[in-house]
Amino acid sequence: MKIEKAVLAAVTTNRSNVDGGSPIFICDSKEEMDQLAANLEAILDGIGHALSDELYIIVKH
Amino acid sequence: MNEFTYPILFGVVVGVLARLLMLRTDYRQYPTYLHGKVIHLSLGFIAALLGTIAVPAIIEKEYTAVTFLTIAASQFREVRNMERNTLTELDAFELVPRGNTYIEGIAIAFEGRNYLVIFSSFLATFGYLVWNILVAIGVSIISFLLIKKFMSGSSLKDIVDIEYAHPHFDGAGLYVDNIYIMNIGLPQRQEEIVEYGMGFVLTPKNFNVRSTIANLGQRQAILHDVSVSMGVFRDSGTPALVPLIKRDLDDGRIGVFVLPQERDKQRAIDIIGAVPVLENAIRMPSESKTNKQKRGSS
């Protein structure tokens, strides 16, 4: 089986939102989270998707 | 020099002219350079020669000689493979790929055009040998006209209505009209998309068209053509800025989201309208027997 999509990282301001295998980046504010997610998007060549106001995931398509 | 020399020369010239007529470089940018053209002209020359020689062979009662036409067939199938392989290799380096369906369509066209050359050469030489050169010229002109007709398939504007709809966000969801395209999280990306993005809604004109424009290959062809003609606001390493087409499951409309460098609505609508309907994407559900019966009884 070929997996085409993968969650590369999770960026959140609320630690209780995420847990598990992928790298998790915890931020203090929304601005910091936007900044971090933009950087990660460029570095990882993935797309930053918003699951809620407090949680972004970077997904490789 | 014998009685076949001039008819053969005539047939070959007609065939090569026919191939030239069918070899145009347009916005698809293929074949672009001289070398690509030389390859196809040479193959066209071979095809013309094969078509021409068949006539004297029959007249001289050399029936077995006609079997070399089968060699021609396998030769031109090889052309199709060659085109397919080249374009597939190159496709990986396109910012917006053509997609396999489009490539297959182009490859089929290259093979088919060589057969058209064989036919027109055959008919020209036949006309010359059986009647005279005037008939041959007439036959050649008719075959040129037929070739012109064969070449132009239908385009999207014949089968769909195209309307502009500016892309907008509902939370993190990107929409064109009411068709969901994708989830874009970063506010920075959202701003870029609202600023540079354009959306179009393609409404199918009838039932058959629904499945045709739903075809993923056909959709990729639309994106590729728009991106080639109008530029694309994209680079490697910016996967969020990807042109996409999604479908409205309710009524089969498709929402086209593109990021052109040049944002001229009318030109974009014209370009989408001129996208060829890919042969491999055409579906005819209304031709199915069960569908016909249903309509007859109701």
Summarize the structure.
The complex is a heterodimer of chains A (61) and B (298). By secondary structure, chain A is an alpha+beta fold. Chain A has one helix at 30-44; strands at 6-12, 24-26, 47-52, 55-60.
Structure explained in plain terms:
The complex is a heterodimer of chains A (61) and B (298). Chain A has one domain (6-60). Chain A has one helix and four strands, in the order E-E-H-E-E. Chain A is 25% helix and 36% strand. In chain A, strand 3 and strand 4 (55-60) form a beta hairpin. Chain A has 61 residues and is an alpha+beta fold. Chain A starts with 5 loop residues before the first strand and ends with a strand. In chain A, 28% of the residues are buried. In chain A, strands 2-1-4-3 form a four-stranded mixed beta sheet, with helices on one face. The model of chain A has no long low-confidence stretch (mean pLDDT 88). Chain B is an alpha+beta fold. Chain B has two domains: 5-152, no CATH class; 157-285. Chain B contains ten helices and seven strands. Chain B has helices at 5-22, 34-59, 68-91, 100-130, 133-151, 187-196, 207-214, 216-230, 265-274, 289-297, and strands at residues 160-164, 168-170, 173-176, 179-183, 198-204, 244-247, 254-258. In chain B, the strands form two sheets. Chain B has a four-stranded antiparallel beta sheet with strand order 1-5-7-6. A three-stranded antiparallel beta sheet of chain B has the order 2-3-4, with no helix packed on it. The longest helix of chain B has 31 residues, at 100-130. Chain B is elongated and about 80 Å long. The mean pLDDT of chain B is 87. The A-B interface holds A 34, 37-38, 41-42, 45-50, 56-57, 61 and B 171-172, 182-189, 237-240. Chain A: InterPro entries: YpzH. Chain A: It holds the Pfam family YIEGIA_cap. Chain B: The chain crosses the membrane at residues 6-26, 38-59, 126-147. Chain B: Pfam families: YIEGIA. Chain B: This is Membrane protein. Chain B: It comes from Pontibacillus yanchengensis Y32.
